[in-house]
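Forum > Structural Biology > Help requests

Title: Can anyone predict the 3D structure of FAD-binding domain-containing protein?

Hi all, first post here. I have the sequence for FAD-binding domain-containing protein but no way to get a structure on my laptop. I'd be grateful if someone could post the structure tokens.
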Amino acid sequence: MEEHDVVIVGAGIAGLATAIALKRVGVKALVLEKSEGLRAIGAAIGLHQNAWLALEALGVAHKLTTTIPPLRKVNVTNIDTGATQQVAFPQPDKHGHESSPIHRKALLEALAEELPVDTIRFSSKLKSIVNLQAEEGSFYAIIHMENGVSIKAKALIGCDGVHSVVARWLGLTTPVNSGRWAVRGLAIFPEGHGLDVDVQQFVTIGKRAGFAALNDKEVYWFLIGQSSKGEDIPHDPEMIKKEVISNFAKNFPTSYLRVVQHSDLSTVTWAPLLFRFPWDVILGNLSKGNITVAGDAMHPMTPDLGQGGCSALEDAVVLGRHIGNLIIKNKKLVAGDQVAEALERYVKERKWRVAKLIVGSYLVGWVQQDGSGWFMKFLRDSILYRHYSRLISNDKQYDCGKLPCVSSSNNELDNDPRKIY
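Reply #1:
Sure, ran it for you. Structure tokens for FAD-binding domain-containing protein below:
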């Protein structure tokens, strides 16, 4: 049986960021990823001020800031009336951070580069979990893999996404369908797209779409619709693209259709938008002994606030901080009640924050798409769009804190990641 200090399930944003946070406090984690390589589903991600603060705490922000244009405003066009409103993003925070779009793959690669080459183990699918209490109150997680390998760890962190095996083991409720779906893709213009840097968004009853330039040759685009109208969409990328152009977005501006037409088919995906009820996050078992979850495994949410990936980065820093403080106290990572208590403190700090984001994301999506009555239009045009920057500024400027400094003199962890104390 292999032995590791910490095992992380999933090499997405949450998993890689958590591994970096642990590395910063002196813990080498093993990351298990069921895919054959880094997954970049979703094509792009918006990094808001809170994400940049987390990336700075992880020591990664400097690798990304030089090539990303900031997002200043969104031009929202009502397809039915032709009217356009400008919606401002929050002003730069006191550190000068602004919202920026980035390739999801570029973010994953930047995170992965910070880890030792043997940290990530691809093609490793989790089969089952056993929580074992050994002598003298020490807790261990035993992970059984589908390839027959068994792994013993002082802590297990599930960062395995919306359909998390670890979350299911903890007894968390299955994420529910929001009633909406999303198609996403990346358009490539070898000669340059010539588009404005401002985000363009288009809304009509039951549908919302838009695009944002990542650089002068690549554009991220999306389309969100009602589930009743999207269940018949084929999952073949070429067919998805054709369905968007000829059916769902046929009345949208030519600028949008042009972007979709230039899609790199390898980036085009369709998926239902799932979320976990906020009360399940607040009241559910987000940790049990030395096992917990982070990212979408803890708090799946709709993408309407653009906070899914950002909050996953926050999770990593907060989790690393609590484990780092434990190491400072004990001079090593000890398997036992203190690890469980550190994970409980992490959960206590995160659950109200992410529950609020789940609610906010759902409400923002609901107001923008679900209804044509005067009241919904009033909420959307006179409240949400007009006051968007002020309404969401606190969420996007949230500071998750710093990682503690764990000096080598205070850290007695052996260089062998398989050693269990």
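Confidence is low (pLDDT under 50) at residues 409-421. The two ends are 15 Å apart (CA to CA).
Shout if anything looks off.
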